[in-house]
Amino acid sequence: QVQLVESGGGLVQAGGSLRLSCAASGSTFSINIMGWDRQAPGKQRELVAVINRDGITNYVDSVKGRFTISRDSSKNTVHLQMNNLKPEDTAVYYCSARAPSGLKYVDYWGQGSQVTVSS
Question: Which residue, 10, 37, 8, 45, is CA-closest to 116?
Fold first, then answer.
């Protein structure tokens, strides 16, 4: 029902920047919230940033002040601007979306995008 396609990952030196993008298609009108999470080798997956339909955002403490999540005007694409990247940010980043389904919610994920930060 909802498909998410990510782009923008890559290799960057510490202190550099990358911008991830996620294009949503399908039943995008039903999406309540979108975000990004990440999973580093040997670590639990963690939610990095979210943005809801009103544009309200939230971030995990470790990226506050460095990462910014945003939507385009159509609300069909979200971006994660990552500045002052650190080696600890190295992970596979996944775009996510949540949509209502009956009395519950269904979550969708993109294919994942590798971000590698070298020191």
Answer: 10
First-last CA distance in the chain: 40
92-to-11, 61, 103 alpha-carbon distances in Å: 12, 18, 31
Q: Both tokens of residue 103?
A: 């009395």
Question: What is the spatial distance between Cα 35 and Cα 69, in angstroms, rounded to a whole number?
Answer: 8
Q: Are 38 and 117 in contact (CB under 8 A)?
A: no
CA dist 52 and 21 (Å) reads 16
111 CB neighbour count, 10 Å cutoff: 11
pLDDT mean over 2-9: 95
Scan for tokens 């990226």, then name that residue: 63
> What digits encode the pLDDT tens for the residues 81-94?
999 999 999 999 99
User: Taking the CB of residue 21, how many other CB atoms lie within 10 A of it?
Assistant: 17
58 SS3 class: strand
Q: What is the pLDDT, as a whole number, of residue 27?
A: 87
Question: Band of the pLDDT at 30, cuts 50, 70, 90?
Answer: confident
